[in-house]
Design brief:
Strands 9-7-5-2-10-1-11-15-19-20 form a ten-stranded mixed beta sheet, with helices on both faces. A hairpin with a 2-residue loop joins β3 and β4. It is globular and about 70 Å long. 31% of the residues lie in helices and 22% in strands. It folds into two domains: 296 residues, Adenylosuccinate Synthetase, Chain A, domain 3 (Alpha-Beta Complex), CATH 3.90.170.10; 96 residues, Adenylosuccinate Synthetase, subunit A, domain 2, CATH 1.10.300. It is an alpha/beta fold. The longest helix has 21 residues. It starts with a strand and ends in a 6-residue tail after the last strand.
Length: 429
Amino acid sequence: MVTAVVGANWGDEGKGKITDMLGDEADVVIRFQGGANAGHTIKNQYGKFALHTLPSGVFHQNITNIIGNGVALDIPKLIAELDSITGKGVKAPKLLVSDRAQVVMPYHILFDQCEEERLGKNSFGSTKSGIAPFYSDKYAKIGFQVNELFDDEYLVAKLKNVLEIKNALLQHLYNKEPLKLEEVLDTMHQYRDMIAPYKADVSAFLAKAIKEGKNILLEGQLGTLKDPDHGIYPMVTSSSTLAGYGAVGAGIPPYEIKKIVTVNKAYSSAVGGGAFTSEIFGDEADELRNRGGDGGEFGATTGRPRRVGWYDAVASKYGCRLQGTTDVALTVLDVLGYLDEISICTGYEINGVVTTDFPVTIDLEKAKPVFTKLPGWKCDITGIKKYEDLPEKCRNYIEFIEKEIGFPITMVSNGPAREDIIYRKSALK
């Protein structure tokens, strides 16, 4: 069976932990979109890890880990990640990289930096990982697939044409020095040698795995609200963050995705710019930020402080709907134990009218949060294993959220470790 693990909101929902946990019963874990611009934080017996490209199944020896064709493949970062986990005692994982995956080039990162510099205060808050230029090249059909690295005659001819375009932009738009063919080609040869042991026909491998009844996990990056079509455009990422794209980015039939676990934080957080209706500020935000996540709400890739806010039921309902959610995993619930009272955003006021439907970005920018306040439970819930053992006010909080979003909460994370999880029966299933 194929299960997708995706995010309901702005990313950083705790997908890595949930994927790592579900990996106990998985045979295959696949990254199907995005690149090294975001990270999954995982805490296990080996220590604490921030994965950016590697699937979260790399800590399980029984799992085949796959980089799908939909991923923006930064080869040096992938290899560095492999070295970093094996350097901490993790056995080398089984890893396959699609021969159709496209390669993040050094000039993609350069162009990302140049464009953010050019935009100045109007920048998109990019991680400067080259993601937008990468996807621009992919759909302009001037990108490079992994398989193309292995045909030198073809590679040189194509690279000459691509560099004509890149150098014109570098010189005349950004006032930078042109790229040299020999230097870029040498880099691509290094990339070829790095990736050679892992190159594979991934779609053929997955077709066989599905036929054999293997358990397969699709691991998404970021969340619904960062999707280029359905998110807070233009402050979005450059590849689809929806479970539906998993079929495309992995190379499997869409009807094979039977279960969609949508990860949803018990409060809200976001990195980068864009509308964030339930955002809080000042001392209130600082306290939540410092208490939140695993060691605070700071970006796994950039280290930047995340913007934080109260749980947004409007955005989460929308995010779960777009994902096609079958199960909600509610994470970092333990963080909220210090609060006397907890706010939940249950509506948006736009031009004097209250709505519970998530609007397009132009209207979202005008939205003011409508809050409902619930009493806090004022205790540490870490280590609790049974739902009925949670404080009543904590259960009330969970059940209120479930009613507001209309999707079943079947997992509750109450701590950073992989064993800090509570399974719950929902009346909605």
